[in-house]
């Protein structure tokens, strides 16, 4: 499966990934991030159920220093 | 007259003990930022929303140093130039942190970083409809400030001077007009350079001061954070105390009666 994550192509991902599985695969702390798929926010409570589709565009964000 | 300890800042029904809000940008590292926060006594920090670094998932995160359970994170929309950008960013922030209190800033020209007030008003409307409590960075124009309040802004945050300039309160007349007409908190956001600037803002009657560069780019940020804590308290106390009238001539402090 092919995903675009934070503007970069990821081609080597298995089909049928849930959001939770992707987060674990990327090694990210689930509590501190949020994810948008194709411009829609994915609620954290659904990370375990939502299955990603080929060519989904994801944005994964966290908080950094700012004014 | 309320005592300092009960003179709290209340925004959108939430109570904060400190009237100082600090940014988390431009510090040498997150540890210095955390130390400055402790010295400042601030209850709220502004934070930015950005992509995670996928190539180094173990890189330190702000939340490892400043605990969002103890300090209120106020997500901003820095870098957003349209209402749509701003609402997209803050929806993600809300999901990441679970907070609906946010700072809206829609900027225009990178040279002066003045807010684009037309877009700011539009974004304000969109965010309010989406259930956000919005603290708004705005120009020091009482007409726009009134419009923001009418749209339901949780706090009006006029600039004292351009972001990061450290020039101090350039237009105290406008800031005072905004304070006079507003029934929501007015917080000077941007322009403070040193402690006396923060005191001036508070003496004008502002409900709070938001600053980042003044602390982060001081030679000793932690010490400046402490100075700002005292500056904001001093200005607030002086405002509540009510200053003496200015006079054109001297007035002796020691009585003249009973002179030998």
Structural class of chain A: mainly beta
Helix proportion of chain B: 25-40%
β content of chain A, as a range?
Answer: 25-35%
Largest interface: A-B, 27 and 38 residues
The secondary-structure element order of chain B is EEEHEHEHEHEHEHEHEHH
Q: Helical segment tally of chain B?
A: 9
Helices and strands of chain A, in N-to-C order?
A: EEHEEE
How many discrete domains of chain A? 1
Q: Mean of residue pLDDT of chain A?
A: 94
Radius of gyration of chain A (CA) equals 12 Å
- What is the chains' assembly state? heterodimer
Helix amount of chain A, in percent? Answer: 10-25%
Could you characterize the architecture of this molecule?
Chain A has a single domain, classed as Roll (Ubiquitin-like (UB roll)). Chain A is 12% helix and 33% strand. Chain A contains one helix and five strands. In chain A, strands 2-1-5-3-4 form a five-stranded mixed beta sheet, with no helix packed on it. In chain A, strand 1 and strand 2 form a beta hairpin. Chain A is globular, with a radius of gyration of 12 Å. The termini of chain A are far apart. Chain B has 260 residues and is of the alpha/beta class. Chain B contains nine helices and ten strands. A five-stranded parallel beta sheet of chain B has the order 5-4-3-10-9. The N and C termini of chain B lie far apart (40 Å). Chains A and B meet through strand 3 and strand 5 of A and strand 4 and helix 3 of B. Strand 5 of chain A pairs antiparallel with strand 4 of chain B.
């Amino acid at each position: 499966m092919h995903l675009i994550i934070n503007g970069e192509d990821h081609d080597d991902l298995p089909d049928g990934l849930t959001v939770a599985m992707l987060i674990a695969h990327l090694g990210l702390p689930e509590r501190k991030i949020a994810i948008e798929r194709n411009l829609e926010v994915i609620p954290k409570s659904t990370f375990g159920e939502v299955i990603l589709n080929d060519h989904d565009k994801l944005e994964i964000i966290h908080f950094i220093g700012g004014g | 007259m309320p005592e300092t300890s009960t003179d709290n800042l209340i925004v959108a029904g939430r109570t904060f003990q400190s009237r100082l809000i600090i940014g988390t940008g431009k510090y040498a590292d997150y540890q210095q930022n955390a130390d400055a926060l402790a010295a400042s006594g601030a209850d709220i920090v502004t934070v930015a929303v950005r992509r995670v670094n996928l190539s180094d998932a173990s890189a330190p995160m702000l939340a490892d140093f400043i605990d969002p359970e103890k300090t209120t994170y106020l997500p901003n929309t820095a870098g957003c130039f349209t209402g749509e950008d701003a609402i997209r960013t803050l929806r993600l922030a809300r999901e990441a942190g679970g907070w609906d209190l946010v700072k809206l800033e829609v900027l225009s020209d990178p040279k002066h970083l003045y807010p684009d007030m037309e877009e700011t008003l539009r974004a304000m409307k969109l965010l309010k409809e989406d259930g956000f409590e919005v603290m708004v960075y705005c120009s020091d124009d009482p007409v726009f400030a009134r419009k923001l309040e009418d749209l339901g802004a949780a706090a009006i945050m006029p600039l004292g001077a351009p972001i990061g300039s450290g020039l101090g309160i350039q237009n105290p007349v406008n800031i005072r007009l905004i304070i006079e007409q507003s029934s929501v908190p007015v917080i000077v956001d941007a322009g403070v350079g040193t402690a006396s600037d923060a005191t001036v803002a508070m003496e004008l009657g502002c409900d709070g001061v938001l600053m980042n560069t003044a602390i982060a780019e001081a030679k000793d940020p932690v010490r400046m954070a402490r100075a700002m804590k005292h500056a904001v308290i001093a200005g607030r106390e002086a405002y509540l105390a009510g200053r003496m009238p200015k006079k054109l001539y001297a007035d002796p402090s020691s009585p003249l009666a009973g002179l030998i």
